[in-house]
Amino acid sequence: MMGSMEDDPLFSPKLIDFKPRKRRVGLIVAVLIVVAFSVGAYFVFGKDAQIPQLLAGIIGLIIAASLQMFAWRGLFNTLMAYGLAARIPVLIVMFLALQGHWGTHYDALPPGQEARFRDIGLIRQFINLALLPQIFLWIPFTIVVGGLFGGIAGLFAKPKNR
């Protein structure tokens, strides 16, 4: 049987446990995260992105996600757990799709790169097309976007009295 919302770590009021000074610091860090995320997103999702741009964007996302750890550790831990829980099943499906040549979006090769990726073998395909993007792109993206909306919600939440 499910416990109350106070017992549930995903909805715990403990996540919103700011002091006034922490709110200001959290807001400043949130702004910096948004700026870092915006720059990173431009490089990752920009038109005609090349490998150096993609790497710079992914590094920007990782840095932005890492800043969340200092701004609000409880929310960071929750979002990291959620990101892993959401991405591990996708990795399993992608591995099976690549291995079985399902012909779905889970094993689709980048446009214009079919010959390059078909010749590198299953494990390297999996690492390049599934593992690296799922772990180093989508989990930081989850943390940054979740931190942004969590920070907005945290600004309006009332702090707990101790």
Q: What report would you give on this structure?
A:
The chain has about 160 residues and is mainly alpha-helical. It has one domain (about 15-155). The chain is about 70% helix and about 0% strand. It has five helices and no strands. It has helices at about 20-45, 50-70, 75-100, 115-120, 120-155. Helix 3 packs antiparallel against helix 5. The longest helix has about 35 residues, at about 120-155. Mean pLDDT is about 75; it is low at about 1-10.
Poorly predicted parts: 1-12
The computed structural class is: mainly alpha
Radius of gyration: 19 Å
Gap between N and C termini: 29 Å
Strand content: under 5%
Shape: elongated
Could you state the order of secondary-structure elements as H and E? HHHHH
DSSP summary: helix tally: 5
Tell me how many strands there are: 0
Main β-sheet description: none
Domain count: 1
Mean pLDDT: 77
Quick structural gist:
The protein has five helices and no strands.
Can you give keywords for this protein?
162 residues; 5 helices; 0% strand
